Structure formats: C-alpha cells, structure tokens
Amino acid sequence: MNKNKRIIISGGGTGGHIFPALSIANALKEIDPAIEILFVGALGKMEMDKVPAAGYKIIGLPIMGFQRKLTLKNFEVLVKLWISLLKARIVIKEFKPDVAVGVGGYASGPVLRIASKLRIPTLLQEQNSFAGVTNKLLAKKARKICVAYDGMEKYFPVNKILKTGNPVRQDLTNIADKRSDAQKYFGLNPNKKTLLILGGSLGARTINQSIMKNFDLLAKSGIQVIWQTGSIYIDQVRAFTKDKEMGFIQFHPFISRMDLAFAIANLTISRAGAGTISELCIVGQPAILVPSPNVAEDHQTHNAMALVNQNAALMVTDADAGDKLIQLAVETMKNQDSLKMLSENISKMALHHSAKIIAEEVLKLCDTQN
Predict the structure, then answer these.
(1) If you write DSSP's letter for every residue of 111-147 in order, what string do you get?
(2) Which among 38, 77, 178, 249 has most CB atoms closer than 10 A?
(3) Are residues 142 and 181 in the same domain?
(4) CATH code, domain with 263
(5) Domain that holds residue 161
C-alpha cells in the first residue's frame, strides 16, 4: 500500500517568506489532498502564529541570524544553530519527509542541511533577484532551485534553476471585478483616485515619517489615501493624527484584505520585498518602491531596479523619501499616461501559477524517492 507523501517546508521570519510558503502548501494540497505537510520555522517569529492559523502544523527552532558586527551575541547564535541542527535531525527522522522545501530565511538552513545529509531531495525557492546567504550555501546540494528573476546563474548552478516566479496569495489572482466591493469595504469615494501606502506587515518607519512630514501636501492633493502603518507604529500615527482633519485618509495597523486594497488603488507606495513585488506584478499595480536599507545584501534595491530598468515601477531611496516620496506620488497620480504605462509594463513581468508549478516540481522529486 502506498503511503501518503510527506513534505517539510522550512523558512520564514517575515510575511514575505510565510505567504509564499503557505501558497506552495495549498497548491500541494490541491494536487494531492492526502499529502502530509509539516512546517519548520524560527521560534518567536510570525510564522509560529500565521502557519497554524492557516491550518498547518509548525515546529519552531531556536535559530537566530548572525550579527554583522563583532559581538558576543554571535556566540549565542552559534549555540542556537547547533541546537537547531540537532532538533532538525530529530524532526526529520520522526517525520520522514520525501522532500524538504526551503523558502529562504535562516530557519531553512538547519532543516535543508540535515535533509541533504540524509539524502532527502531538497528544493529551494529564492524570491529575490539577489540570492540570500542561506540559499547560496544550500544550493550545492539542492536538486531544484525555483527563482523569480532572470540572471540567477550568478548565484546558482544553471542546470538546477527553474524560473517560476514567486507564489502570491490566491485571492490576488483576479481582482478586476472587486472594485465596487473594495469601495464599500473601505468606505471610499468612487470618484476620487486612491493612493495605497504599505510598509510591510510590521511597517516602515521612513515611509510613515514621509507621510507625516508631507501630510498637508496629501490633504490638498484631492486624492484619498489608505495607509497601512504597521503594528509597531500605530500608536505613533494615532498620536500624530489626533487633531487633524482625516476625511481624505484612513490608517490601519494591518490590511487583511489586500485583494480589495489593490482593487481600489490607482498607485501603491511600498517597500521592495520580493513577495510584495510579485503581488504588484500579478495585479498590474503602478508602484513607487522605497527599498529598505535594513536587509541583507541590500537585496530590495536589486529587486526594485529589476522593475525600474523595464519602466515597470518608480523608485525613491530611503534617504530621499522624506523630501521626494509624497511629491512624486501626487505628481504621478495626476498623470494618467504615466499610471497606464506603469500598469502595462509591470503586468508584463508577472509570472502566473507559480505556486502550482513549484508544487509540481516538489511532487516530481517525491517520485524520485519511490
């Protein structure tokens, strides 16, 4: 009797890693409802809440990232890495996966390293145009590496690369008919253009400060604004807006219905995380990208430039955002030709059905074990 296929999916740390991982898991379940999936993440990170909420079991490792400067904290990192490797071995021995999938982030390192040593096929999903350290270290033993950008042979063996794009949330695949629902959901004026401002699940201080610095400019612009502040900045924003006229702008710590937010938006301001960029491409959303300077190898700038070079997005550096970001947004919102060009060009960069394609590759690797 054939046993059910078993897959471990590891990685996380941010929504940019977790949502693609969940999309892959859901795609696997659609193809084979009997498949058994176990997630492995980092203790204390958001995957420990988001994954169970999506209906999947997750085990946490005490892994943490290295500090870039010389510090005694890196001794603690090494100890936790050693403990995580031991725990990963126990998890793999008990679960007996057919394939291990890594979606990036340091949590995937111990699991895929141990899986490779135990001769379990591994698949990497690299979301960025500039490969992360963990995936570069794991690539040598990986069977397949799924990427979202051209030119990734700079980092990985060319014979292992498959360009699939990044998986996105399923509710974003068809937003064209949701505009009226979005107007009702957010309570917006259908006759005004809408600016959507995102800072990721935790928020972006520079973007928030840019809005507060240029609040009067936005108020006089005649546009309406949906502002995702991020959970850690919500109290600061509440204090700032306490005595201000808020008829044109609404703020939320987190937007759960991103499909409706994109459906109503004419332009989006966002960081340049790989997952967000993939979503912008899928929905054909004109965007101004503000790459975060606080990420490894400045990969968000590389992500943004891949679009800017195709006239598919605009970019403002984090350092320039306070003076230039909101002014550029207002000017762009008033230029319908510019919005149309950005929408058309970013749509051309979309790669559809990414989660299903990756899931099919995972199942091919399962078959090599049987």
Answers:
(1) HHHHHHHTT--EEEEE-SSS--HHHHHHTTT-SEEEE
(2) 38
(3) no
(4) 3.40.50.2000
(5) 6-166+352-369
- Which stretches in the chain have pLDDT values below 70? 1-2, 13-16, 65-72, 200-203, 296, 369-370
Would you say residue 68 lies in a domain?
Answer: yes
Tell me the per-residue pLDDT of 194-206, one tens digit each, with 9 for 90 and over. 999 997 655 588 9
Considering all CA atoms of the chain, what is the largest pairwise distance in Å, rounded to the nearest integer? Answer: 70
In the sheet with 6-10, reading across from the earlier edge strand, the strands are 57-61, 36-42, 6-10, 99-102, 122-126, 144-147, 161-163
How many angstroms separate the Cα of 360 from the Cα of each of 123, 163, 182, 218? 11, 13, 34, 46
Q: What are phi and psi of 273, to 5 degrees?
A: -65, 150
In terms of domains, do 148 and 52 share one? yes
Q: What is the pTM of this model?
A: 0.85
175 plus 80 within the same structural domain: no
Q: Are residues 326 and 263 in the same domain?
A: yes
Render pLDDT for 322-368 as a digit per residue (tens, 0 to 9).
Answer: 999 999 999 999 999 999 999 999 999 999 899 999 999 999 999 87
SS3 327: helix
22 and 154 both lie in a single domain: yes
Residue keyed to tokens 């949502």: 19
Q: The sheet that has 249-252: what strands, in order across it?
A: 249-252, 224-228, 194-197, 267-270, 287-289, 314-315
- Count the domains in the chain: 2
The label of the residue with tokens 């001769």 reads 119
